[in-house]
Amino acid sequence: MQYLRKSLDIKICLCGQDSLDVAKSHNNMANIYDYQGKYEEALELHSKSLDITTRIHGDSHMDVAKSLGNIGNVLQAMGNPEEALVHLQKGLEIGLKLFVSEHPLVADSWCNMGLALAEMGKYEEALEMYSKLLEIDIRFHGDSHPNVAATYQNLAVLYQDRETKYRQKRWPLRHTI
Fold first, then answer.
1. What angle do CA 93, 17, 23 make, to 5 degrees?
2. How confident is the model over 45-63, as a mean pLDDT?
3. Beta-carbon contacts of residue 158 (< 8 Å; ≥ 6 apart)
4. By the 8 A CB rule, do 109 and 69 touch?
5. What class does CATH assign to 1-90?
6. In degrees, to the nearest 5, what angle opens at C-alpha 44 toward C-alphas 39 and 48?
7. Structure pTM?
8. Is the model's pLDDT at 102 over the cut of 90?
9. Rounded-to-integer distance, Cα 158 and Cα 136, Å
10. Structural contact between residues 63 and 45, judged by C-beta atoms closer than 8 angstroms
């Protein structure tokens, strides 16, 4: 982190506060904070990156979509899937405007939205996201790729969680003998 801070200081001196290099540095530092579980710090830096990229590129650019996705992922990790979903949907909308629906950025959005929806207990909507993701993964990577395996795993967890919640809701309705 200390080297990233030194790099950021140099970039600010050379390019000013509002440069893409500074935005990328904020993003890189935020990813480290996210990995360390320092979500508030990560959220602040991802927000700075989003602010810079939006001022430079406008509202419809791949870097803006990525920043929105990063913010959504941090909010998800913080236990706020509803707010995460808002950012993830905005990122998806940008991705769909810029790319075909099978683009990797769009696929990442489907995955992350599926995670948020599953956490919210919206299993059918999450299933829809994962199904779209699986189609894209198989089409581009084939049947034996780690992304395909991860999507199958997400689907399995989703079905298991849905069934567990269903049984828990139904259990009080049963009579004991």
1. 35
2. 95
3. 114, 118, 123, 126, 127, 130
4. yes
5. mainly alpha
6. 145
7. 0.85
8. no
9. 19
10. no
Q: Please report, as a single letter, which amino acid is at residue 150.
A: A
Predicted local distance difference test score (pLDDT) of residue 72 = 95
So where are the chain's domains?
1-90, 99-170
Token duo for residue 85:
């979903």
Instruction: Return the amino acid letter for 86.
Output: V
The first and second tokens of residue 82, run together, are 């509803």
Arch. (CATH architecture) of 99-170 = Alpha Horseshoe (1.25)
Percent of the chain with pLDDT over 70: 93
Strand ranges for the chain from DSSP E: none
The answer to whether the beta carbons of residues 158 and 118 sit under 8 Å apart is yes
SS3 content of the chain, % helix, strand, coil (to 5): 85, 0, 15
Please tell me if the domain spanning 1-90 has the same topology as the one spanning 99-170: yes
Per-residue pLDDT at 99 exceeds 80: yes
- pLDDT mean across residues, the chain: 89
Give the type of residue at 28: N
| Distance, CA of 28 to CA of 25 (rounded, Å) | 5
